[in-house]
Amino acid sequence: MEYQTFVFDLDGTLLNTLDDLAASTNYALRTHDMPERTVDEVRRFVGNGVKKLMERAIPEGLYNPQFEDTYACFRQHYLVHNLDTTRPYPHILDMLDGLKRQGKHLAVVSNKFYAATQDLCRHFFGQYISVAIGERENIRKKPAPDTVLEALRQLGVGRDGAVYVGDSDVDIDTARNCGMPCLSVLWGFRSRPFLLEHGATTLIDSPLQLLE
Predict the structure, then answer these.
(1) Distance CA 21, CA 53 (A)
(2) Which residues partner with 133 through β-bridges?
């Protein structure tokens, strides 16, 4: 594929983070005497940042008087336990290594909070990815274009020749808002029918396809 810059989503695209997200969600819910959620429920809740994940997981969401305490509990637990089971999907490291050898520009843009995005990218992809941007208070998160455009700025490149790679409807909308093509991956948190229903135009079923 003739792209020079690849901007990746993180959860469900480069890393399988689902079990750790579910564990921290349920720890926070359990700590505050709330019903726990299944892994499949958490899978449906992710994609718009961890605050939205907890808003969906907590009964009555933001209107629950314990929301802020439960959300804070999640964040504290996840920062300690985000490496318990999280791993790159198969062939992700081979793909990143190949793109790097080809001289491509690589970045990660996630709706995960900033500290966790930085920690995970540094741990798993430090030799490949130098620009990793998570949710920050002073910049609109995806699907707004702000974080992707900031990543391109830090890479020192423009949108020409750039592509966004993600696993969700949020990623499709983000790419559209940035005026960039989107490659929707089939190994992540969303199914082929879901992605097609939400406007996916190009789907890939192996990271190694990015090297073709």
Answers:
(1) 9
(2) 109
